[in-house]
Design goal:
The protein is α+β, with helices and mostly antiparallel strands. 55% of the residues lie in helices and 16% in strands. The strands form three sheets. The protein has a five-stranded antiparallel β-sheet, with helices on both faces. It has a five-stranded mixed β-sheet with strand order 7-9-10-12-11, with helices on one face. The chain has a two-stranded antiparallel ribbon with strand order 6-8.
């Protein structure tokens, strides 16, 4: 943009200068030539009265005095053939002047001016003045050089002003782009400079208004999610009281543990909703993938045993730090393992593997011997092949992308579904 502005201003200024300076330079040359011709004509005419009144000796002396300091060559041709002043040939223009016609013409080396006169005897005479080319263009090269310097100076000044303006515009545009990128990265406190020049200031104000509205909407969304999650605590408390009232202590403890897990999930949902959108990288914490996966697999192992599912667990000894919080990672593991229990018949075996990821992080793989996904199926939020919400795989996908990884679906070696969850590494110790 800056280069284009400079090119446009330079081209426009050059055209204006050419349109102004070229005619002015030609005018200066014409004025200089007219000035020299006029001066020579005045000198010749000043001698015309002397030719008819002064004697031969006085006329010769006068011509000599005028011819000496003058750059022009002055010659007087008398009727008897006498030539006074600078020796010169009788040119056709001189012959025309002898016939009584005063004229000027351009000749080789300069300009010739003749004035027809009469001597004391009434005979025809001619006064010839020759102006050389150097006199016709005297002062013109210097004037042209001055005009050229003036044109270069004006062009340089215009480019300097254009460069300053272009820098301001480019800087303002770059600042707007930077603010847009910061907003896209989650920094809702980023604001553009509304004092930017011209329409850029209007765009900056509009962008600031949009950022404020986005922040307001996200804040309302977070509070709404937190309020909804908080309302779940009341029926959970009632459920805990009912669980404690059960006669069997073992059943009461099992149901109470389930209620505690739900309460923890609700608390984590509230905390996550309040963290989200509070700034760049807000809520981006890490965890030990080995510890989290081991804990959640142990939780699901009880249900797997009750449903006669053969479970193979291969977890690399930790720590395996990943750029995902323990709560989010636990939710991913629960979503992937829960899909097996929800969408495969009892007795379907599955394998859980956790290994380091090249370059940092971890690779979590869950594969089963069930029917798998239909051909062409993709991970789409809200879409489910069963009677579920269709959010499980999408939650895992979003969490993987948040941690700098990805989720890949495939077919396992036993014909079922294989889900590969890649998680990026975390700089520093896990939280």
């Amino acid at each position: 943009m800056r280069r284009r502005i400079l090119t446009l201003v330079g081209a426009t200024t050059s055209l204006v200068l050419i349109a102004f300076l070229v005619p002015l330079a030609l005018l200066l040359r014409t004025v200089a030539a007219d000035r020299a011709v006029q001066a020579a004509t005045v000198e010749a005419q000043s001698l015309s009265s002397l030719v008819g009144t002064a004697d031969r000796t006085s006329l010769a002396l006068t011509v000599q005095q005028l011819d000496a300091p003058s750059p022009d060559a002055i010659t007087v041709f008398l009727a008897d053939g006498t030539v006074l002043g600078t020796p010169a040939e009788r040119t056709p223009l001189v012959e025309l002047g002898a016939l009584g016609t005063s004229r000027s013409a351009v000749v080789d080396g300069g300009r010739e001016i003749v004035v027809a006169v009469r001597d004391q005897a009434g005979e025809a005479g001619v006064i010839r003045s020759f102006v050389p080319d150097a006199e016709l263009s005297r002062g013109v090269p210097g004037a042209w050089l001055l005009l050229g310097a003036l044109g270069v100076g004006l062009l340089g000044l215009s480019l300097a002003v254009a460069d300053r303006l272009a820098r301001s515009l480019v800087r303002s545009t770059t600042d707007l782009a930077a603010v847009s990128h910061r907003l896209a990265g989650g920094d809702l406190a980023a604001r553009a400079d509304p004092t930017a020049p011209g329409e850029l200031g209007v765009v900056a104000e509009a962008l600031n208004g949009l950022a404020g509205r986005i922040a307001e909407l996200l804040r309302e969304e977070r509070e709404t999610v937190a309020d909804l999650a908080h309302r779940v605590r009341t029926p959970l408390t009632a459920l805990r009281l009912d669980a404690e009232a059960l006669p069997g202590q073992q059943d009461a403890a099992r149901i109470g543990a389930g209620v505690d897990a739900v309460q923890r999930a609700v608390t984590q949902a509230i905390e996550q909703a309040r963290r989200r959108g509070s700034g760049p990288g807000a809520g981006r914490i890490g965890s030990d993938a080995a510890a989290v996966v081991r804990e959640r697999v142990a939780f699901w192992a009880v249900l797997a045993e009750d449903t006669d599912r053969e479970t193979t667990v291969e977890i690399t000894p930790g720590p395996l730090p990943v750029a995902l919080g323990a709560a989010d990672l636990g939710a991913c593991v629960d979503a992937l393992l829960g899909n097996i229990f929800a969408h495969t018949p009892d007795g379907t075996s599955f394998v859980v593997r956790l290994a380091p990821r090249p370059g940092g992080g971890a690779v979590f793989v869950v594969s089963d011997a069930g029917p798998g996904l239909p051909d062409g199926a993709t991970v789409r939020r809200g879409a489910s092949g069963g009677r579920s919400t269709g959010l499980g795989l999408d939650i895992a996908r979003r969490s993987a992308e948040q941690a700098g990884g990805r989720l890949v679906l495939g077919r396992s070696a036993r014909g079922g579904l294989e889900v590969v969850l890649e998680l990026g590494g975390l700089q520093g110790p896990p939280a």
